[in-house]
Amino acid sequence: MDNIVTRNKNLSGQNMRYWLMKTEPDDVSIDDLAALPGQTVAWYGVRNYQARNFMRDQMRVNDGVLYYHSNCATPGIAGIVRVSSTAYPDATQFKRDSKYFDPKATQETPRWFNVDVQLVRKVPLIPIKELRQHPELERMRALQRGNRLSITPLDPAEWNFILKNLACD
Question: How far apart are the C-alpha atoms of 9 and 11, rounded to whole Å?
């Protein structure tokens, strides 16, 4: 079993947290991460204050992340990644030609942040329909009707259930 499954503390000695991060596979897919072994990718473009606050205030290096493909034919969990940096200002907010440009953001007072993530491993796609079939996951925030956040926290029990029962090779 992956070390990230059984570890309880992150590098700073704090209790590890677990997350589900949604991405559109046309933007950055699990295959894109797999093509960059050992490298990190910036999780950029978040423009929701609650998701930003999760990254900025709560995410820590080595926190576990379920990498979720959304806005595609079959949405679902496609892999496991880890947070590989603390939050830092998202550079796209300052680029006028970026779709993520924010005219209210300044270098002195950035509004948007990102973290870097790194692939742990791909998993066979776990469709949202399958996730919804398990009573152990009925309270999972990402599965609640109307949830549109790109980042949601996971309860450790949800994380462990998914990795031990659904994300098997």
Answer: 7
Which whole-number Å values give the CA distances from 99 to 22, 46, 128, in the listed order? 18, 11, 28
Report whether 76 contacts 120 (CB < 8 A). Answer: no
pTM of the model: 0.89
| Distance separating alpha carbons of residues 132 and 110, to the nearest angstrom | 37
CA distances from 95 to 24, 41, 124, 143 (A): 21, 18, 36, 34
| pLDDT at residue 104, as a whole number | 97
pLDDT at 77: 96
Q: Which residues of 20-56 are buried (b: 16+ CB within 10 A; e: fewer)?
A: bbbbebeebbbeebeeeeeebbebbbbeeeebbebbb
Angular region, 76: left φ>0, alpha ψ -120 to 50, beta rest: left
Which domains occur in the chain, in start order?
3-164 (3.10.590.10)
Helix residue spans in 68-151 (DSSP H): 128-132
**DSSP letter at 16?**
P
pLDDT averaged per 10 residues, the chain (length 169): 50 76 92 91 92 96 96 94 97 96 96 96 95 95 88 96 85
